[in-house]
Automatic annotation (TrEMBL):
Organismal lineage: Bacteria, Bacillati, Actinomycetota, Actinomycetes, Pseudonocardiales
The name this protein goes by in its record: Glutaryl-CoA dehydrogenase
Any Pfam family matching the protein: Acyl-CoA_dh_M
All copies of domain Acyl-CoA dehydrogenase/oxidase C-terminal, residue ranges: 245-387
Acyl-CoA dehydrogenase/oxidase N-terminal domain ranges (all copies): 20-130
Gene Ontology BP term (one): fatty acid beta-oxidation
Amino acid sequence: MPKPVNTNPDFFGYAELLSEAERAELAEIRAYLEREIKPLANDAWEKAEFPFEVVEKFAALRLAGYYYPEHGDGTPRSPLFTGFLSIELNRIDPSLAVFSGVHTGLAMGSVYNGGDQEQRDRWIPDMVDMNKIGAFALTEPEGGSDVAGGMRTTARREGDEWVLNGAKRWIGNGTFADLVVVWARDVSDDQVKGFVVEKGTPGFHASKIEGKIALRTVQNADIVLDDVRVPEANRLQNVNSFRDTAKVLAKTRGGVAWQALGVAVRAYELAREYAVDRVQFGKPIGAFQMVQDLLVKMLGNITAMFGVVVRLNELVAEGRGGAAQAALAKAFTTTKMREVVAWARELFGGNGIVLDHEVAKFFSDAEAVYSFEGSREMNTLIVGKSITGLSAFA
């Protein structure tokens, strides 16, 4: 009698830390994503177009409400549950997971954490329902990792309005968002502040960035702000410096670690299935020692990644997960993800470069996940300062 085969990439059973109800809910979400979202993903990626029908499909899942339960169904979800939810979204399609993450994590997170109660009540319910889609405009054409100290976009107060001027780049959802959180330097005190710019505001111009090789479905925008006037009521009232911006980034950076795990999980699943099904020299290629070596190295990376992100979420739940822990998780998991997707693509041989076998998409998308929310080098310096007390930033 043949021995059972363990096909689960969660080899050490971290999902068993979830409650039975949470595991059942995740299974329902996976089935829905497989049925409703996955059939749209590859075609949209190849065309570099956003399938707007997914907005209604995501809204039906009430995904945004999981992070803000008082505006959702009222049921709090554990940080561990939302981490496993990220795996499910990313194993279906990293681009559409980024669409959701920009909206729920960066844009809604900025309003929720940086806004006052009136602003939360004004915007969050529509964002939970996905009647209004959000974007987050921080990165600039000449400022990525150094944007904290070198932000060129300015804000100047005139009476009850603010006048914004400058440019932003790589802004996910930026071409169609209803609400764009724009970060700008107040010329009066040289501090970074946050502003919600609503769709149709004069002087706000967004154009799609073309020619991407990763996350092609994500509509990244170049944004120009030309005397954009924003009312004081749209300035995030609890943002007084870049430190408040960094609080949002610290939370989403930990989310990117889970995203990297989701990408790696799917690449491994595809590679394992292919190794079992693909026959060469009269037997499945999974019967060859070097192929098994690749699969086991992938699984080892994934298992280590699980350990990091699960523990990070435990620390977050206890109020002990800080910026340094999130930075280490992001740097480590994205590096290991990059190895996993490369080994998966290698296992497919020539078939690994065509979209039909799907692994090519995950191989390409991994490059964006590796780069955003702080490069490996920048996150390394955050951790380095934490463990030495010495800043090595240029």
